[in-house]
Write a structure and sequence with these properties.
Layout (H helix, E strand, L loop, with lengths): L3 H26 L5 H12 L3 H19 L3 H10 L3 H13 L2 H28 L7 H4 L6 H20 L5 H8 L2 H13 L2 H28 L8 H47 L4 E8 L5 E9 L6 H13 L3 E9 L4 H35 L7 E3 L4 E5 L8 H14 L4 E5 L10 E2 L2 E2 L1 H17 L3 E5 L1 H13 L5 E5 L8 E4 L4
Parallel strand pairs: 2-3, 5-6, 9-10
Antiparallel strand pairs: 1-2, 4-5, 7-8, 9-11
Amino acid sequence: MASQEPVERNDLAFARAVFGFRQWWRESVIGSVDQQAVIDKRRVEGEMSARYLFMTAMSGGIAILGLLLSSPAVVIGAMLLSPLMDPIMGLGFALAIGDYQWLRKSARSLAWGTLMAVGLCATVVFLSPLQELTSEIASRTRPNLFDLLVALFSALAGAYAMIRGREGTIVGVAIATALMPPLAVVGYGLATWNWTVFSGALLLYITNLMTIALTAALMARLYGFRTALSDRQTQLQNIVIVVVFVALAVPLAYSLRQIAWEANAARQVRGELLDQFGDRSRLSDVQINWDADPITIDATVMTPALQPDAEADGARALARQLRRPVNLVITQYQVGTSSSAAEQAQLSAARVQAEAAAAERADDLAKRLALVAGVSMEDVIVDRQRRRALVKSTELEGATLSAYAELERRISATEPEWKVELVPPTRALPSVSFEEGEPTEAGLAALELIAWASQRVGAPINLSGSPENAERARQLLVELGAKNIEVDSSDSANGGVTARWGRIG
């Protein structure tokens, strides 16, 4: 009996401590929260409105452009604009208090915002000449357990800020959870029919969405937000929330495990190759395709002594270490015995790779120019040293002179480091309208087009019209870079200037 008394006293002291803490929490913490004010504000912020839809669309447009340009600063700007956090938090608070009408409204707002963002981003990508898979896009296609934890901690901070009336914190929460960029990547995957990108980004978005909503619900319950549900229904909700968290965590944990395995395996690959060739060798480049079966490894090595059996020996050793079949391809460059010789060879190999990439880009430019000009690739002149490309276009049915200029402008925009020249056929030149001795806005546009055509074709141009207007047009054309401009003054009833091609020779 005596030995049981200390145990009973400890249990009693613990029970008193728990009771005191719960009483303090109800009176000092929960009692200080204006629950109705928080709920009313969450309702208003989560409603679907013209502002919500407009800001969602603008955020999506900025996000996809930032991803295509691989610009983190632009992507962060999209995160700050995105209003998707409001309906997601609304889902959590509605779930906590059992208001299913509010839950449906928040879900509808979120669904429309999601569909609008994905649709707009897919349209921008579909119309964009830039559709390369950038690092910013690739980083959002493989969610893992860490992404869930980021969303969890961000949701805890965001829900606390909303409950305690410190919503300035939401800016940082919006950046941390990054709701809009995954949606933009979903649109990218849809536009390019890339299922891997589409599914990976969609999983990341759903992970963030569910984690934020369920965490907000738990925080609201913790702060005593009242519910119309019975105790049994409330317990069932809690069980469902836990099950959803576990269901999300399992595949994300597997993904994290796979990423960690690949990082460790990459170190093993580099270590095995260095051990095989020795300290005086250098690894110039190692590319690994983990999705291939067998795993494909393409490596470039600078070594003083060539090893003919390196691929077979390395493949066997790596297969034993990785426990998966390996297809190893090693490109060996023999260099001097000093470390500086290996470094010089590595630099030379890098230059060779850069030149090969430049040649491939020039060939791609020639293909595109040949396509828009309606000629074969042999008719396209490409000067890689001066970065200049020239092609003489055939007669394209229905194409005006301005259409040829627009084709050149579009291709030039994709290759800003190149000077692209598309020589049009000698189509009719536009007339230049004047008003009070100066060309109108439309007249200035016509002069720019005439100057462009003059530079490309190289034929003289005859101007006819009133002496003053024709001379003024000639001066402006010279300033725009046109040459061989001849003036044929004549009376003009409307005061405009007519431009025609002259004879060559």
